[in-house]
Write a structure and sequence with these properties.
The chain has 370 residues and is α+β, with helices and mostly antiparallel strands. It has 3 domains: 2-239, ABC transporter type 1, transmembrane domain (ABC transporter transmembrane region fold, Up-down Bundle); 257-333, P-loop containing nucleotide triphosphate hydrolases (Rossmann fold, 3-Layer(aba) Sandwich); 340-370, no CATH class. Helix content is 67%, strand content 8%. It contains 12 helices and 4 strands. It has a 4-stranded antiparallel sheet with strand order 2-1-3-4, covered by helices on one side. The protein is elongated.
Amino acid sequence: MASYFSTYCLTWVSARVIRDMQVAALKKAQELSMAFFQRMPVSDIYARITQDTNAIYAAMTNGFIDTIREPFTVLSILVSMLVIDWKLTLIASFMLPLVLVPVISSGKRLRMLTKKFTGLSVTQSGYLLEALAAIRIVKAYAMEALQLKSFREQADIGVEMSVKTAQTRNLLNPLIEVLSMLGVGSLLIFVFTTNAKPGNLVAFLTALLLAPLSIKRIANLHLTLQMTTVSTQRLEELFSEKPTVVEPANPRALTKFNQGIRIEGVTFSYGHKDVLHEVSFDIPKGKKIGLAGESGSGKSTLINLLMRFYDPTKGKILLDGHDLKDYATKDLLAQMALVSQDVVLFNLPVATNIGFGHDGATQAEIEQAA
């Protein structure tokens, strides 16, 4: 009964911690600028919010009790051994480095393998999402076999890395057992060549033989923590990201669009190549303009700058005579509407999709828009 309640309470707490972590991670991603999403694949962001948090959840639920219990168990065994015979305890302590070396070595290797496997998993997820999102094109050109072949090659690499990870993790326990038995055997030879008391010897050996079990549990916990460290670091990387488009400390009020927009000497580049170079023109209120140009000439980039998804590399964009950077992004976007060439239908009710972007839209307004 005690085990049931402890497991229930641990799961209850862990599940809520991970839920809050996932919500916080998504909130952080939403706060970042478009430059972040251009640099980091969606599959990688998805993996950090789901797979990495789930790895931490598994470590919390499976290793938390051992983290508290086993160090006290080892300490109790050590104290008992010291009380029985401190000299034998000192001799037995020399066996500890023999056990620590493979534990530390296995932990480092497992951490490296986990990092590689996580990277492969992100690549696989990205490839899979791309293949399914473009299934219409794949079918149109009858490229299913090629897609499947490429995915199978990546999956084969995943199988190989999974086997290496399992070998590294599962080899440690028998190795600890062998080293422990060798140490106990050596200690027995030493004891029988001395005048140790039989009663003390039996008590000492009983305590000593209990140690390997706890040592194995601590070693496995160490390996679990090494694997979880990779997920923790990936989440830390996400939370440490800073938006490139910074909100003003004291934003200028913007309730109505009155005069016009001015593009003033705007230059913008993705990396080292300029997409826009010293572009200048005016858009008075009430006027319509059209932008024409070949693919990659900067038409979409200009829209992104107007909506302040990015800031210009040089120059500035003025709204009613003031730099866009002076306005809160929320107020700025409230004056704009984007009709994209990409048709997106969210997994929400139709009414919610129609009213998307107009928080608090009434049913009558939604019906009128439809």
